[in-house]
Protein: Iron-containing alcohol dehydrogenase
Organism: Clostridium tertium
Amino acid sequence: MKNFNYSIPTKIFFGKDQINALPDQIKKYGTKVLLAYGGGSIKKIGLYNKVIKLLKDNDISFFELSGIEPNPRITSVRKGIDICRENNIDLVLAVGGGSTIDCAKVIAAGISYEGDAWDIVLDPSKIKSVIPIASILTLSATGSEMDTGAVITNIETNEKLGTGNPEMAPKFSILDPTYTFSVPKNQTAAGTADIMSHIFEVYFNNTEGAYIQNRMAESILKTCINYGRIAMDEPENYEARSNLMWASSLAINGLLTYGKETNWSVHPMEHELSAYYDITHGVGLAILTPAWMEYVLDDNTVDKFVEYAINVWDLDRSKEKYDLAKEAINKTREFFISLDIPTTLREVGINEEKLEEMANQSVRIRKTIGNFKPLNAEDVLNIYKAAL
Amino acid sequence: MKNFNYSIPTKIFFGKDQINALPDQIKKYGTKVLLAYGGGSIKKIGLYNKVIKLLKDNDISFFELSGIEPNPRITSVRKGIDICRENNIDLVLAVGGGSTIDCAKVIAAGISYEGDAWDIVLDPSKIKSVIPIASILTLSATGSEMDTGAVITNIETNEKLGTGNPEMAPKFSILDPTYTFSVPKNQTAAGTADIMSHIFEVYFNNTEGAYIQNRMAESILKTCINYGRIAMDEPENYEARSNLMWASSLAINGLLTYGKETNWSVHPMEHELSAYYDITHGVGLAILTPAWMEYVLDDNTVDKFVEYAINVWDLDRSKEKYDLAKEAINKTREFFISLDIPTTLREVGINEEKLEEMANQSVRIRKTIGNFKPLNAEDVLNIYKAAL
């Protein structure tokens, strides 16, 4: 196990009607809020009106930034920063899924930065101060509600990049599973794949002796496997929605990473797909994951797949190592199929045309991606082709 | 899953040589420290000198409270409070195991309380303010390094009682597994049993739909089972010591409890044993746990034991329910035996004499203890007798 410094300061108000904690929590930080959200879904479920009423009843003034995109764009970040500067905002409140929260984070970090906000995406070390951020979550997926990162897209340059800062952890997040009852089947599936991918990125890892982290990772993977389909078939199943929601936060808030040396693989590969084709992030991850697993399976990595096979998929431990590994990878693919997620890039409109360009882009910052088995541009291209 | 408000603010500096973080962290809160510790063990391993040097080199003044007992006594708390009041202490730094940290917590909470410190043990609602607390952990067991509770003994009244307050969570804790290398076999065993008991107290529970919490609980139980004996046989095995140390914190920091309605059973029964006979807490827990499990096993609880049998002990799921449950309980008992822990009360010098008095004492505050299967005085007496 590696040394680590643990700090997860975000307060979570979890459960039905926890929205009532909102005014008191906001007032710890001020009375002027930027209300950031995406499209009409929060209006459709009545959440927008509820938030507005709570703010008005408690003399909290607010300014709105709406229309934040599913892969949130730097143009939205810039708009948000302008509103905050003009109105001396105390706290950015994101109401929505991970995209909205990510956008809110970079707005909060960009207010005090003098140059263009894209700079602090390209180079997180330029972030000097961050105003308080809070979230009301409506989609179980990215874990942005309890972590310190954000991913922003620049359409002009075809770039989708992650940034982060410890101060970007929300001060508090309200997680009411009933706000996810209206999430459609395909987004529920993509969100579940996203949560699982966050776990895979740190579970398939070479750090020795991180036993407790590995067992916890398996416990959250099992949660996703147990409830993913249920939440699609019974969208108002509180048990399924609540387990997935808490899984989304725990998968990426640091708990599974502390003590490991991690370096993600599938996310950076997928970010290129989303940047070039604007596809749903979780779908891209689900398509790439089994192809990536098959590609990295070798004598150095097979034991980790055996662990996965036995502890997550309950496969028969007496079988031969490679058989177990391959069976576990098939189980993974079959699980994503059971969630009705497309299994090939072609199904989401991606053909051979830009694969090489995207593969080169994926490694442009570091020469390789991932540390479970480091991948260069050629490896990434092979995985893209295998997923075609 | 129940609603919950999650807040785990303690920062953890985990790993070898993390002690170097001490001066900067203390200075966030002031420059006058009460250094609280137990016997000579921190001197024997050189930790005392290291702490003293770091404090002196960084112009942090300190006053000492030594001799804190294994079941920390209210008399030590009173002494600590006096020193803090006389010297206007900014932070209480506990260096030791759970007993030392518990004592430090009640000192920090008692400074501003005008009456006798035993009052705030009897009635935690009397705690109004708590000065900052920090810890350097030397024993993996109680989890006090990352939680909000403390257990204090009053020898005059034969009482051992828990108290707590959100502000009693340490501001930071330094967890260096090498400080536990010198922990003797019997204390390593008792600590492991204590960690497992904290998990059992919340795992054997009737809250519906807390799937993710149950799987995480199993993952930490597996960690204890995997490393308990190894740490005894190879005291300087860093992997074993680090996994047990992190397990001790995660077992009780709230992670496994949030979303559940919990009410402990075995701890309140054991507290009477420790209060009357001053036995090692973890040994008392290990003796009582299998007897308690057998006593509460019935048609309402058997499914939970089946879950435990399959997910923790990998038992054959095709077997009959009660067979699985009983086999899992036997596995639990055998595990404690494999750690060389006594299995009966007689072995630790407890006979029939005071069983009834202790049973009555255990339920004097609430009429019953536990909510998995509520126990009255007669039930407790039966469990004591079964463990005799």
Q: What stands out?
A: The radius of gyration of chain A is 20 Å. Chain A has a mean pLDDT of 97.
